[in-house]
Amino acid sequence: MKERIGFIGLGAMGAGMADNLLRKGWPLTVCVHRSRTAAERLIAAGATEAVSPRDLAAACDIVILCVTGSREVEMLVKGPNGLAAAGTPLLIIDCSTSNPSSTTALAAELAALGVTLIDAPLARTPKEAAEGKLDVMVGGAAEAVARARPVLEAFAARIIHTGPTGSGHTMKLLNNFVSMGYSAIYSEALTLGAKAGLTPQVFNSVISGSRMDCGFYQAFFDFVLNRNENAQRFAIANALKDMTYLASFAQAAGVANPVGAVVRNGFATAVATGHGEKFVPALSDIVAGLNGVSLVEPPAE
């Protein structure tokens, strides 16, 4: 008999994940965190609804969180209406991109209450979430990860056990450091090229198909060249949040992180100039605009 699954965080990623769980036969209860749109669709398809995280925990064996970060996770877990208040031996799977230090501290606090927390952040996009083909990095004890694995397999094509609780969130920050670093480099390179009269099309003709090409590059340049706003649906404000977590992690680890600081400042500038809700590839336009050039060809007269 399948365990009862609870889900909070039915956003761009979470909606597809929850849909896969329901379609693959998992008993699903949802609790609305922000928008009701996806929840209404899932309820119509057979999910049930809990009015609070506490009620959700009381009705479920495993709860998946897919929210913005540590602050939201702690708000949902703690307090009189939080998940922990139900007093049940719950397994919480945090698929958010959270601060590893917050994750390990929260896991220890919950363990004293008989609740297990593992971290299982995600890679790839809402498209793969809907298709059940996400990558998941899981941090936790082997027995907890083994219990979670059949649930994760409903929406993941690759599941990597990274080590103890907190290691999944650490690996996710490193993953995002690399990808956001690419974004900052692409944006600055395109701006330098534009200043010198090299168009994004010329830039792409050299990089695409070369050793420097990759899936991330192709998604980023789908926006740059084709203006596909949905090519990479990850908000600049969330990129800044993750780079801020990385800076905190580096400081705690006593590691000099100068490149990370530069990448973070690029996203901080974008947010400070009012572009936080745009998706990451739009950083290319923001950097170009701040330098007085455009990456978009003017319409033919």
What does this structure look like?
One of its GO terms (biological process) is organic acid catabolic process. Keywords: NAD, Oxidoreductase. This is NAD(P)-dependent oxidoreductase. Belongs to the HIBADH-related family. With 301 residues, the chain is of the alpha/beta class. It has 2 domains: 5-164, 3-Layer(aba) Sandwich (Rossmann fold); 170-291, N-(1-d-carboxylethyl)-l-norvaline Dehydrogenase, domain 2. 50% of the residues lie in helices and 13% in strands. It has a 6-stranded parallel β-sheet, sandwiched between helices. It is globular, with a radius of gyration of 20 Å. The N and C termini lie far apart (67 Å). 45% of the residues are buried.
Which features does this protein show?
301 residues; alpha/beta; Rossmann fold; N-(1-d-carboxylethyl)-l-norvaline Dehydrogenase, domain 2; six-stranded parallel sheet; three-stranded mixed sheet; NAD(P)-dependent oxidoreductase; NAD binding; 6PGDH_NADP-bd
Q: Tell me the fraction of residues in β-strands, as a range.
A: 5-15%
Order of the strands making up the biggest sheet:
3-2-1-4-5-6
CATH architectural name of the largest domain: 3-Layer(aba) Sandwich
Order of helices and strands: EHEHEHEHEHEEHEHEHHHHHH
Overall average pLDDT: 96
Give the terminus-to-terminus CA distance: 67 Å
CATH fold type of the largest domain: Rossmann fold
Shape: globular
Give the beta-strand count. Answer: 9
Largest sheet: 6 strands, parallel
Instruction: Name the structural class.
Output: alpha/beta
Instruction: Indicate the low-confidence ranges by residue numbers.
Output: none
Overall structural domain count: 2
Percent of residues in helical segments? 40-55%
Task: Enumerate how many helices there are, as a single number.
Answer: 13
The CATH homologous superfamily of the largest domain is named NAD(P)-binding Rossmann-like Domain
CATH class of the largest domain: Alpha Beta
Radius of gyration (CA) equals 20 Å
Keywords: NAD, Oxidoreductase
GO molecular function: NAD binding; NADP binding; oxidoreductase activity
Protein name: NAD(P)-dependent oxidoreductase
Organism: Mesorhizobium jarvisii
